[in-house]
Design goal:
This protein is of the alpha/beta class. It has a single domain, classed as Rossmann fold, CATH 3.40.50.150. Helices cover 40% and strands 23% of the residues. It has a 7-stranded mixed beta sheet, with helices on both faces. Helix 4 links the parallel strand 1 and strand 2. It is globular, with a radius of gyration of 15 Å. The N and C termini lie far apart (43 Å). The mean pLDDT is 94. It binds S-adenosylmethionine. The site of S-adenosylmethionine has 22 residues, from helix 2, helix 4 and strand 2.
């Protein structure tokens, strides 16, 4: 097990509900998420709940030096790993609902989510969604993933409704089996 995967598991054992997954996303899922994001090398990209950075790695590779990578993560263990792995990224130990204050005065071309929406209370879903929509540039994208087994959880269905309410277009991939557990990717576009 790699050092960062072990850190991820230990963060989960400490705070299972908050971390929401026992294992970091696979390379296949991480690539599917990164490939769903369209941004130019000089853009601002935000990641919410990056864990130990499997998506972050690919996003950082695709942004050049003029681009800005802002990440908000609530597990102190994961933040420590992220700051070591991505010294040029803006890594905040803060909740995704406070995203706007970290992005301003710019707006984000793309917001990528690693959050476990299915574990979240409705009021938290609303606060984070409102922070996302107010931080996205016109035409910007919101991309994330969800676990296939939780597709019909009431909290997941509620979040799905929020996406359709807030975005002009919403798309889902088929299930990606090479992940523990299997998952799918969604992407949404702002007007
Ligand atoms: C399901 S894990 C995904 C981690 C990583 N993106 C991956 O796919 O391997 C969710 C991550 O979101 C973080 N998290 C949970 N609630 C959060 C919040 N309100 N704001 C920021 N991060 C949060 C957890 O600490 C955890 O690292």
């Amino acid at each position: 097990m790699s050092g960062s995967a072990w850190k991820f598991v230990s963060a989960f054992l400490r705070e299972p509900l908050k971390v929401g997954a026992i294992w970091p996303s696979s390379e296949t899922l991480s690539r599917a998420v990164a490939d769903a994001c369209s941004f130019a090398p000089h853009d601002t990209v935000v990641e919410l709940g990056p864990g130990t950075g499997n998506f972050t790695q690919l996003l950082a590779e695709r942004l050049d030096k003029s681009g800005r990578l802002v990440a908000l993560e609530l597990s102190a263990t994961n933040v420590e790993v992220l700051r070591r792995r991505f010294p040029k990224g803006e890594i905040h130990f803060d909740s995704a609902e406070h995203l706007a204050k970290h992005v301003q005065p710019q707006t984000a071309r793309c917001v990528v989510s690693g959050l476990a929406w299915g574990n979240m209370l409705p009021a938290m879903q609303d606060r984070i969604m409102s922070a996302i929509t107010s931080s996205l540039a016109p035409g910007g994208q919101f991309v994330g993933f969800a676990y296939s087994h939780a597709r019909y959880y009431p909290t997941t269905l509620r979040f799905r409704k929020l996406m359709f309410r807030e975005f002009a277009r919403v798309e889902f991939t088929p299930t990606i089996w090479r992940n523990l557990p299997p998952a799918y990717v969604y992407r949404c576009w702002r007007d």
